[in-house]
Sequence to fold (748 residues):
Amino acid sequence: MQMDGGQALIRALELEGVDVMFGLPGGAILPVYDPIIDSSIRHILVRHEQGAGHMAEGFAHATGRPGVAMVTSGPGATNIVTPLCDAHMDSVPLVVITGQVPYAAIGTDAFQECDTTGITQSVTKHNFLVSDAQDIPRTIKEAFHIATTGRPGPVLVDIPKDIVDPRNPRSAMEWTDDVEMDLPGYNPRTDVDPAAIRAAAEMIRAAERPVLYVGGGVLKARAAEALRRFAEMTGIHVVTTLMARGAFPDSHELCLGMPGMHGNFTAVTAMQEADLLIALGARFDDRVTGRIDGFAPGAKIIHVDIDAAELGKVRRPDVAIQGDCRVAIEALAEVFAADGAGDTDRDAWRSRISGWQERFPLYYEPSQPGDSLKPQFVIERLRDATPDDTIVASGVGQHQMWASQYWCFDHPYTWVNSGGLGTMGFCIPAAIGAKVGCPDKMVWAVDGDGCFQMTAQELVTATVENIPIKVALLNNSYLGMVRQWQEMFYDERYSEVFLSKDVPDYKAWAEAMGCVGMRVDSPEDVDAAIAKANEIDDRPVVIDFRVSASEKVYPMVPSGATNSDLVVPPSQQDLPR
Amino acid sequence: MAGKFHVPDYRYHTLVVKVENKSGVLARLAALFSRRGFNIESLAVAPTDDARFSRITVVVDLESAPLEQIIKQLDKLVNVVEIRELHPGHAVERELMIVTVEAGPDRRDELVEHLDRAGGKVLSVGTDSMMLSLVGPPKRVDDFEELLHSYGIIELQRTGRVALANLDEAD
Fold:
């Protein structure tokens, strides 16, 4: 069938099962926007291309399906570099289509030309510059295959205007339904080595102080259910990293919560004192390990990862298992089901863990009458007033850590955040993308005021496109995490962290964007505001919670320290560890 | 890619990387090395007998990163089809050097004698200089270059090494 490249591109996306995409048109991508009018794909028009990228990420986080964004050349492409890098760091499957100047004009510094594939090379899993209309269907198929298999990640497809413009003869192509991929160098491995599984099982049986160190790879592998069975079968405690919150239920008795720089004492210390860490889809990130030469000094390591390059990158594993986490966990479970979990006595370990849990729970000083509102309190009230499968998105900073700490994640794919890149401004668009992917779930964006000001304009998109997310703005008028570091490590010399007490007026701003705006100053008004927000389902809601600026995130491992030097809240500092 | 890695006892190691013959592939490889802080000692790129593929022979500096990590990161590049790690003792390695040296009439005979012994060729002769070429194992090329310093090197160009596994090592 004769088609033009633009029609072929949209058709190819439809064949990949794309039903929604996020984007913003411009000159070079214009011809592709015409066939969208006749397509079944819902296009969500964003206000800034960064928003399109983060929405696609939020969609992918919440649904497990690849997020799709489409933008124009030049500034459209450069504006989406941050989401690409974010997705690359957090292994989020994205397919991003960028317009490009006509093929013959590439290299001439044409209007809105930039070297998009060059710029995005190091922040994508792979990228393509398509030179021929005939190659479009195959390239799209390859892009989705690469984005969603192996270790997922973002793939960019750069499309010169002439091959999609029906007025240009170079756009003519012959559509066929059966295109074959041509990727001789791409063979992701998912199966696991049975010998390595047996060696791992042996090591687990013999361990007296084992901990399951669960990372985002478990979610990517849809392995939460397998993990729960395995943990229960073996009785081994679980920590879930920032990228893995919800991969194991927080309310489960074996769950120790989040490890790392702002992890809770028990999660951090159990890893530190373990004799065996079973790392599942986790990459020994510096925010988890603290100073690497002092990390879990007595632990042997079993490391399961689908990306071979992660095995041994930071810490040399004793048993390395390359492959899909679900396959690996199920294979381990099979060995244990057949041969039993062994009889290593772990009573002493269990009682040490419960001792830490009793002495060192997450803690903040509750506000006294007349005190300002505590951000942790807001999150606790929000947690208790929402359905337990509520999706929570966050930005980056103190509010992110408090959300991760004080929320109770009992379901996978309910936590949407920017881990590796730490992208301020992620929250609002990501929450919108998550809500588009899961319209029947409640979606709360827990954001900070610094982050909110970076991408809040996407609430206009949310209103216009009828995407009713809810925003809990923890407004302390500071870049709070930076303020915390300046307080603790720079002698309270506060440099360029104060935003403003009254500007902007968030309630008015929210209303100007078509949202319901509210402001809450005192603890007594928190519940009513949340209840009101939960009842609104026809437009976005923003609650400006004016919270105390002096709150710090505890516990904390100071940068450069080992995890044994975890700083606990002042009230716990004299307790025996 | 092989599942186990040779433990290298040399600082420089040769990798023969078969890649798809597409535009931008060399840039991807170079960008990866730069992004991960891997140092390249030399690099040679040429098409293979199959037009779909090129072969990149890259000598990596193992003081900058462990061999295993370099290979695994390279293997993640979608356009990289195959990586062979060549241990110096188990591969045929060659390098080409073209050099112009100062050589007045009085020193030419001696220089040509050295050149013959190394297996090189005289490419052209000028009034006070000669242009020579030498193809050989990198060590021999190194040694000959060292020797030429006593004559005075005017201009020198080396290709970087190319390598193939020994016949009995080729699997």
